[in-house]
Amino acid sequence: QVKLVESGGGSVQAGGSLRLSCAGSGSPVSSYTMAWFRQAPGKEREGVAVIGSVGPTTYGDSVKGRSTISRDNAANTLYLQMNNLKPEDTAMYYCAADRRTWIRWDSRLTDPSAFNYWGQGTQVTVSS
After folding, report:
1. Nearest CA to 72 among 21, 36, 120?
2. Tens digit of pLDDT per residue, the chain (128 long)?
3. 22 Cβ contact list (under 8 Å, min separation 6)
4. Is 26 left (phi over 0), alpha (psi -120 to 50) or beta?
5. Cα separation, 26 vs 19, whole angstroms
6. Residue 127 and residue 87: Cα distance in Å, rounded?
7. Burial 25-45 (b: 16+ CB within 10 A, else e)
8. Pairing of β 57-59 and β 122-127
9. What is the dihedral of CA 41, 5, 20, 45, to 10 degrees?
10. How far apart are CA 32 and CA 16, in angstroms?
């Protein structure tokens, strides 16, 4: 079982950048499919980016071209680099992990139930 702790959120102006981190403990993150989701007040949780245990990635349309998901297995940490931030990126950002191999890849970005380990979240606020 993996424990996930996010950090790196904050308040930035539109056009700025942030790098979110998700530190894993208790189990190597390299063996998990991992993802970033976000949730704004009054909205459903939205998939931002997913990285498979062997490296494939996929991104939500709202962040494609502006964000990069990566992991450092030696540091047991997942990252999300976000550039050219927009006010609509304002949300709580959550890290998620899952090891169930039978979960369809194309559901990972759209279905939060495709992940069974979650962090507590880190807030990102983008002002115009």
Report:
1. 21
2. 999 999 999 999 999 999 999 999 999 999 999 999 999 999 999 999 999 998 799 999 999 999 999 999 999 999 999 999 999 999 999 999 999 999 999 899 999 999 999 999 999 999 99
3. 4, 5, 6, 7, 34, 36, 77, 78, 79, 80, 95, 119
4. left
5. 23
6. 6
7. eeeebeebbbbbbbeeeeeeb
8. unpaired
9. -30
10. 30
Instruction: Please give the pLDDT value at position 35.
Output: 98
- Token couple for 75: 């540091």
Alpha carbons 4 and 26: distance in angstroms, whole number: 9
Q: What is the pLDDT of residue 105?
A: 92
> Tokens 């993150």 appear where?
29
Side chain identity at 71, as an amino acid letter?
R
